[in-house]
Amino acid sequence: MNRLIPAGIVAVSLILTALDARAAPKVVASIKPIHSLVAGVMDGIGTPALIVEGGASPHTYSLKPSQAAVLQGADMVFWVGGELESFLEKPIATIAAGARSVELAHAPGLTVLEKRAGGSFEAHRHDEHGDHEHGGDLHIWLDPENAKAMVRVIAGELMQADAANAQRYRRNADALLALLDGLRQDIAQQLAPVRNRPFVVFHDGYQYFEHRFGLAAAGSITVSPEVIPGAERIREIQARIVELNAACVFTEPQFQPKLVRVATEGTRTKTGVLDPLGAGIADGPALYFTLLRNMAASVAGCLAPGR
After folding, report:
1. What residue ranges in the chain does DSSP mark as E strands?
2. Whether the predicted pLDDT of 117 surpasses 70
């Protein structure tokens, strides 16, 4: 009989584990960096579903039927907010009406920077995507301090919804906060030698990263990656690159590298790649950290003198 006890204990343990899994809330996250932070808080408890996969842009995304079904069954949806992911506003209000909607752009302690316009940052027009129609720049995740504010909100919401796992959510969040502090310190040290080197970005989506680490962005080719700049705008950027002796122009994996080649033609300016959404990074808790470290490495490499 004693030989049967361990097997019985194992069976009971498996049943309890299955019950815990069923009890865990069904969570959905909008974009990959947000999904990564949510996955980190939920580590060992559950796995959130992701809406905007791969290199797709939240500015122009269209919801798939399979994702509508996921939203319909969700208990909680984490997203930046309607000014960034406007495609989610109506589905969250209708399909996911029974879910708790958490707009992380409103997280306490979050720094929200005003949009930039004029000079080398192209004027914002009302026919562009949502976050540029309003006052704030919603690329909030590119500052590790903002990530900390979002982690606190994510953990608080999950602890309230799933009290049985509250201690685990808290431990996971505390671990993430410590890792984010280390990430900020590492990147600050890595980028310190190139802080005063001017550069141009493909679209104005990196203000939080620049602001946090004291980088010298000189302008953007376009405000929205979906709005192709005209010939006059390209000539303006070419002149600005020459005037500032810009060290680098950064493009993005999914957008018009030809435009960057045209803008830098006839100059000694180097080109690099920045990926603000983690298009080529595997989903999961590590994505956020890999995304920012990759960005820092790209900036440091392209702006380094003599390379």
Report:
1. 27-29, 49-50, 76-79, 100-103, 199-203, 217-222, 248-251, 270-273
2. no
